[in-house]
Amino acid sequence: MLNRARQLIRKKKNVRFLFFIVVLFWCIGFASQSLFPGSGFAIVTYPVLKRFYGTVCHQVDVKTFSFMGHKLFVCARCTGIYMGALLTSFSALFFSPRLKLGIKLLYAAILPVIIDVVMSTLDIYRYSKYLAFFTGLFFGSVVFIYILDAIENHFNGNKIDNNE
Amino acid sequence: MNKQKLFPPLVSGFAAAVLTTVPGVKNMGCCLIVPLAAVLALFLDHKINKTQLPINFKTAVLFGILTGIFAAVFSTLFDVLITFITKSNDFVEALPQTEMLISQYKLGALLDQTMAIMHQMVHDIKTYGFSFLYTVGIFTSNLLINTIFGFLGGLIGMSFLNKRLQNK
């Protein structure tokens, strides 16, 4: 019993570590031009990474942050979402609070994003990179918790097999 | 998996591909289009095929990945079609800027080889409206990214729909 519990904890830690590494590499990728300015790696991979991240982001210049003189490959909102996921995945390595995740938190996380997108698109107020970043940051952090929860529940054996 | 089960990921994958091709919508949805399409696929499956809730992990992952694959196939098709008609695309338009940026650094043979490949792709697109290498490149990147985001969307969809059931 104790062994099984230990195994589960180890598995949980491994999953969290794996997620952290994946998110970290993803974030290094979209900031590679700023993190390794002028390096062979950054220059040669520029067209490839630009196209790669372009699959999931519009990459509009005015909506993108510059860091150390180079534009990131994703817009401010996407930067926020990925940074939120990175921060949460890093915290998850050390803290494991028992959260009872309801649906309201997910609504609360996506609502600011939707409101900001609608308001700025309809020109009710001017688009702000910082607002987009922070709404994305909150959304990314919360969504990551849900994803982690779904995966950990699966590995912990709380499988729901109604459909089989 | 029967044909009826394939229908929801096919429809939402197609919708995601359309939305990622329409520039204005892509600005709004950004990286959330494919994950939301995966959530929609699970929701449609529940409604159309009367799949019982709660959704299990395997179904969620399968639907997410399938949505990502369909989205990648359709968005590549749209991209190829638009490129064929217009004989130009973002890659062709951005190449001079990319070249200017890259040429500031002296990288020798490595840079020359990279630029030669890119120029060949641009030449093919401008002449024939199609470049095999470009198509393989965009399909690979679409497939990889959309599958990952579809997988994540499937998990979010599972959490969302199951928690909604719990609330009821």
What does this structure look like?
The complex is a heterodimer of chains A (164) and B (168). Chain A is built from six helices and two strands, in the order αααββααα. Chain A has a two-stranded antiparallel sheet with strand order 1-2. Chain A has one domain. In chain A, α4 (76-94) packs across α6 (129-155). The two termini of chain A are 28 Å apart. In chain A, 69% of the residues lie in helices and 2% in strands. Chain A has 164 residues and is mainly α. Chain A has helices at 2-30, 32-35, 40-54, 76-94, 103-121, 129-155, and strands spanning 66-67, 70-71. Chain A is flat and about 55 Å long. With 168 residues, chain B is mostly helical. Chain B has two domains: 3-86 and 130-167, no CATH class; 88-128. In chain B, α3 (33-48) crosses α4 and α5 (90-103) runs antiparallel to α6. The longest helix of chain B is centred in the last third of the chain and has 36 residues, at 132-167. Chain B starts with a helix and ends with a helix. Chains A and B meet through α3, α4, α5 and α6 of A and α2, α4, α5, α6 and α7 of B.
Question: What tags apply to this protein structure?
Answer:
heterodimer; A: 164 residues; mainly alpha; 6 helices; disordered C terminus
Helical segment count of chain B: 7
**What is the average of the pLDDT values of chain A?**
86
**Computed CA radius of gyration of chain A, to the nearest angstrom:** 19 Å
- The parts of chain B where pLDDT drops under 50 for at least 5 residues are none
What does this entry show, briefly?
The complex is a heterodimer of chains A (164) and B (168). Chain A is an all-alpha fold. In chain A, 69% of the residues lie in helices and 2% in strands.
